[in-house]
Amino acid sequence: MEWLVSLLGAGLVMVTLRDLFHTLWHPTRHGGLSRLVMTALWRLARRFRTRGRVVGLVGPLAMVTVVGVWAGTVVLGWAIVYWPHMPAAFTFSPGSEAAQEPALLDSVYLSLVTVATLGLGDITPGEGWLRLVSPLEALVGFALLTATVSWVLEIYPALTRRRVLAVRLALLRDADPATRQLDSTAGALLLDGLAVEVARVRIDFTQYAEAYYFHDGEDHSSLAATVGYAAALAEHGQAAGRPDVRLAGRLLAGALADLAAILDQRFLHTGGTPTDVFAAYAADHGRAS
């Protein structure tokens, strides 16, 4: 029975590590827990759409929540591993009153100390297999800290790329280039550059799906509010007289179609055309496309 309880704790740790791997390192990044938490918080925040600060906190708050759940589950899982063998399989420092505490409390305490790599030494494993398992928890704790830092460092550049594209589209919309200006070599280069940026954002939504739940704030930095203008530019490009501009327009239209497919598949589930998807994207982020 003791080993069954320990195996249950080990299974809980493995489930957490699997979710961490799929959230941060898997190529398609289909993290289960992170997506559930972020989706739930996003839907909750939509009920307070008039309060911009609430929506703006969803992304950061969801990341903190996910990391907290990961850490708490790892601590609990390892505590369950220790619990059936506490205190007989452990040694206590002289004068310590830890052995007089409930076994579960000592197990949680030891797990917290170990995962935080503090190594206080007042409770140490005595049996051989526990002396091997305990350092593994410290390694998991270090990996969790490293993964959290990496997650933050990865997701914010993705947000920057998305907002740069949104600002560029907003500036183009305000400049309102004439048809003859687009039907030129400069117009072809412009449309081609936009297609590249849209493709980057599409990849970001694939690899950093959590970025969807970050609100972009003002309209000029919100891709949800400006992506419709990119579709209009693609239409103008495809109707141009110059073949290079038509090609660039088709490239931009294709990149936008790929982006719409990712948004619809992963977040919106409209089953509609790219125009329908972008309208739903704008509505979901509280913007008028």
From TrEMBL:
Listed InterPro entries:
K_chnl_dom
Residues in domain Potassium channel?
88-152
Set out the biological process GO terms recorded for this chain's protein. monoatomic ion transmembrane transport
State one Pfam family annotation.
Ion_trans_2
Keywords, A to Z, come to: Ion channel, Ion transport, Membrane, Transmembrane, Transmembrane helix, Transport
Instruction: Write out the transmembrane intervals.
Output: 57-83, 138-159
Superkingdom of this entry's organism?
Bacteria
Q: What Gene3D superfamilies does the entry give? A: 1.10.287.70
Q: Kindly provide the name given to this protein in its UniProt entry.
A: Potassium channel family protein
Q: What is the lineage of its organism?
A: Bacteria, Bacillati, Actinomycetota, Actinomycetes, Kitasatosporales
